Amino acid sequence: MSVTRQILFALVLGIITGLALNLGTITLPEGSIVWLDANLLTPVGSIFLRLLQFVVVPMVFSALILSLTSREGGAEVGRRAGRLLIGYVVTSAIALALGMLVAQWLSPGSGAEGLVSHTTTGRPADSLSQWLVGLVPNNPFTALGGGSLLQVILAAALIGTAMRALPEESDPLRRVIESGYKVTLKVLELVLKLAPLGVFALITSVIATQGFDLLLRLGMYVIGLTLALALMALLYLVLLAVTGARPLHFIKHFGQSLGFAFGTASSGATLPLALGNARSYGMNDSLANFALPFGTALKRDGAAVMQGFNALFVAQLFNIDITTSLVITVFTTGLLVSFSTAGVPGAGLVAMTTVLGAAGLPLEGVAVVAGVDRFTDGLRTALNVMGNCANAALLDRLDGHRTESLSPADASDSPTAQAHKTDTAAVHTL
Q: What's the predicted TM-score (pTM) here?
């Protein structure tokens, strides 16, 4: 069975097991579910996520430098970054607007006032100026050790640009980085053998412990948010079809990443898989090695949908008039916040406090949606990953690159072929 099928099987089995535990179908002594979650499910899931995060930084760092120092990579970075940013802003604005429109149409907060029972003390997200300052690392080791993908990207861009300006002097360093990239791929291949177990533990933990009472009481909220996310995903498929990027082909090759993102609720942990899927999809290697890490750090369509939808949901929950000024404030703040939301589980709730605070909406609304956040977090993360990969695929089409599966001959002629000749097993695993 391929890794993709194993992950999907583990996801379905985890949902069924979690349901059985939560509903009492599996009879266990009192307190057993809590003990099982604390001592087995959560530790196994956390270990798997940490192993993936262990691979992400060296993979992104080495892949970006190899891309920048390739024959065509460095000259294209500025143009690609500009096009990607334009695409990110436009599609994120559409995602935010879709979230607000669906919330206004369904009015999920009307008649749900009884759910407000306590306040929240969530930490506000960093301001825009703090976020911009935080992009710049004060030393390269801090960038690599801190876990911020934007800092890693900036450090790799500086080092890669300098290496490109000194091709002969930097050639020994490039060979070391190329060797490190191959080793990282082999580590990823080993880690992915644990993917089904990790996904099973993570999804079982969520469903077994969260309970369905609140989910049923917030049914219209969950339905509305899911609808808004689905509409944005459908828009991406339409854009792919219009540009000739073959949406069914896209789903076939990136389906593993989307399913993994749903199960783990971490776009950062999904990045290594997305890079492998992009290769099998036929995306230009140099573009994928730059665009996907860049988008993982910045592109958050799921967060944009959530911020717009949740803000209007809270306004309805507290019977606050939805005025033009409130809509403008939510839209502007939500768009900025969506680019600074961390790619880890639960980060959207932290960012939500900033949007609500800027719009003058009660922070108590965060406590209401917190109970079902993990149920929708996987869907939001899957849209984040889809938006990132779709924007890269659209840029690939604009560049005139042929978007289809690479044959073995094609793969050997790719710009980074030398970096991949010894990682055939890893590519097949991905």
A: 0.73
